[in-house]
Give the backbone structure.
Amino acid sequence: MNVAHLYREGLARFGDGDVVTFEGRTWTRAEQADRAGRLATVLRGLGVRPGDRVAVVLPNTPTSASPTTRSPASAAR
């Protein structure tokens, strides 16, 4: 089990509700999953494979949360 699995499980269990609101913008679980999936596709295209480690340096904002918690794990599935 990895973080990506837990996120997909949460989406299935709780549906597409709001998950983050920041500076007047709200993101849903589906939007976050879409962002994570797009980044995962890019990482796979760059050669990231299961077991690889990916370093992520981003500002501490909600918009950075989905890539840092899900996409690296998703890219290596």
